[in-house]
Structures are given as C-alpha cells and as structure tokens.
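To whoever is covering the structure queue this week,

Two jobs came back overnight. Logging them here so there's a record in the thread.

Job A:
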Amino acid sequence: MTIPALADIVFPIPLSIPYFDYDDIIQEVVLRY
C-alpha cells in the first residue's frame, strides 16, 4: 500500500466520521512507516 493510497483512506474517515478510530489509524500508520 502506497502512502498516497493510505492518505486517501485515512483522511476522508475523520471528515466523514469525526475521530472514529482516528487514533488507531494513526498508530497503524506510524507502526508501518
């Protein structure tokens, strides 16, 4: 999974569903990169 693809997945989520699992997503991104 590329970084732009990850950005497409990560950023629309908090916009659509405010802070839904946002911290978990950030932790996964940090662990992967």
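Job B:
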Amino acid sequence: RIDRTCMKDTIIGGEKTPSLKLKKGTVVQIPIYAIHRNPDFFRIPTLSTREVPRKDESVAEMTFQAFGGGPRVCIGMRFAMSEMKIALAKLISRFKITDSPQTKLTL
C-alpha cells in the first residue's frame, strides 16, 4: 500500500463516485494489491505481471503502481527496469522459447 497525507483540506471524487471531503492531515491509503488484481483494470488480474492493462476501455493513468507514482515515485525505478530488461535479454538469448498447444493465453 501507499500512504499519503493531505497537505490541505480537499474534496475527492468525481462523476462516477460520490465526493468525499478530506481534512488537512488525513492519511490516505492506496491499496495497491487490490488495484493490481481488479478485473476492471487488468484482463488477467491473477497474472503476476501487471503490464497488461485492459485495452477495450479507458483505464486510469495511475493504475500500475509497482513503483508508486507522481513526484514521489521510487528513485530506483529506472535502474530496476533496466536490470530486468538486461536479465530478460540474457535469459532469452540462452534458450529457444516457443509456444505450446497447452498455452491458454493469447500471445
């Protein structure tokens, strides 16, 4: 989860949700685990990779929150993503990867 503290009195909510008044100092918790497993945002909500947002409808910009977001995003995000790409490239170069008849996901 991500915790943030309101810096001033504010109202959140919009067209689809009722408005909620938050006072300065209120701690707001964002349940990342629940968001990443919500079928409204992801086609395969039980899949461990969250890089597959739904394409059939507009999805909130900040749905994928593995590294947080906004001005307080994880400072190691770019480094971690680069490391993952390098590791994946090395892994793929050492093996022959093919699909199988048992594959249930659309590749």
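Note for Job B: DSSP finds two helices and four strands in the chain.

Please reply-all if you pick these up so we don't duplicate work.
Q.
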